[in-house]
Amino acid sequence: MGVVIESEFWEPNQSICIFLFIFCVLSIFLLPTKPAANVLDHAPPGAFLRFQRKFLLLYALSSVMEGLWAVFGEYEFAYYRLSKEQMVTFLSVGYAASLSIGSFLGMISDLVGHKKLCLLFYLLHLFVSISKIVIGTPTIWFTSIFLALASSIFFFSFESWMVIEHDKLGQRQDSLNDMFWLMTFFESASFISSQVLANYFVDGNVFKNVKSVWSGASVLAFVGVLFVTRGWKEARQTAALKDYHVSLRRHATSDKRIWMLSWAQACVHFSVAAFWILWAPTIVADGREASLGLIYPCLLGSKMLGSTVFPWFFHGPLVIRIEEYLMYAFILMGLALSIVAYDYQEIGVLVALFCLFQACVGLVLPSLARMRTMYVPNEIRGGIMSLSLAPANAAVVLFLFLRSYQYIGNSTIISFAALGLFSCAGCMYIFKKWGKQLHQSSHRL
């Protein structure tokens, strides 16, 4: 393996950030919408338009909170004087909680209502923030568990709530497709805002002002609680536990399309988790120095730009079957990670590969959400989504355990993530093959 050790401090060219910003703005105004150019202008009037704007605001607030805890994670570990082994244990505890408890939260969400689980998301963040301010060090392990459960809820409850509300209001499929990519776009933009907000809170001195980040998170969580509880209505859940269990078991065990879709989601979740854990250590490996704070928004900007490609495959001249372009997107993601795993490369090449990976993630996430709408019934959507994360969380816990004992290296973990993405491409190929067979059968009839 060839390793390039750089002696200079590397930082991305400012023109890259300007490029991403300009193209993200242009992508919003040049989207192939019907009939207007602005994506929010063509949304249906009335109740759903109000829900759409309020939901995106709520989702952006949730994304800011999710990103706020991640921005200064390592500095917070240093604040608590945790060793590297303890940091790995901290991450492992969180993913183990997501595996053992989070896998079943989606079913609870389907039964009691997604609004209640979204409220729990904010309450978990509020509890963590207040406990850090009041108690401090003894709560750090509980922090890992509660934040991991909040992240699990963030993955399935907000999307499921939005889809059910969309159907209840009787809106077009086009408006639902727009919501999927807008959620990915707003999530990435909010993560960048989290970085700006965290920098404002710490004011250049992390160890002195880190508690101000917790105070800011508690205020945001309290605002979220008020936002959800006041003025938001949700239809009562009428499905009995027995009927829900029968429906979930029938679809989860007999529908091969749901199997493959869940596997694809699990592989994407694992690859994204491995990416965010290892991207910084990979860049600064072998003593290299780089401005990670400037690279981070470039990665998220690439994800935002990738999400804006999604509407072109439905409204514009690039109309193509969803499983077909997903197949190529998974191949690109797998190739990008394969190159990283094979050779560290110079920092500029690594950043380019990581940006390509994130751009594909921005396209893949709303596309998988669209496929869930096609194949997963709404009444079990949360349960299927939470269960699909179980293999990914189990794999992360396993690899973190092996990594902590030096049984495997970072490149091995990245290689497994790449293999998973190539298997996703295979799943999309099977979807494509089934689609052709169904089309031929309909023509014969």
UniProtKB/TrEMBL annotation:
One function term, GO molecular function aspect: molybdate ion transmembrane transporter activity
Gene3D superfamilies: MFS general substrate transporter like domains (1.20.1250.20)
Protein name (database record): Major facilitator superfamily (MFS) profile domain-containing protein
Organism: Erythranthe guttata (Yellow monkey flower)
Pfam families hit by this protein: MFS_5
InterPro entries tied to this protein: MFS_trans_sf (IPR036259), MOT2/MFSD5 (IPR008509)
SUPFAM superfamilies in the cross-refs: MFS general substrate transporter
Single GO cellular component term: membrane
Annotated transmembrane regions: 12-31, 56-75, 87-105, 117-135, 141-158, 179-201, 213-232, 258-279, 294-313, 325-342, 348-368, 380-402, 408-431
Similarity comment: family membership: Belongs to the major facilitator superfamily. Phosphate:H(+) symporter (TC 2.A.1.9) family.
Key words, A-Z: Membrane, Transmembrane, Transmembrane helix
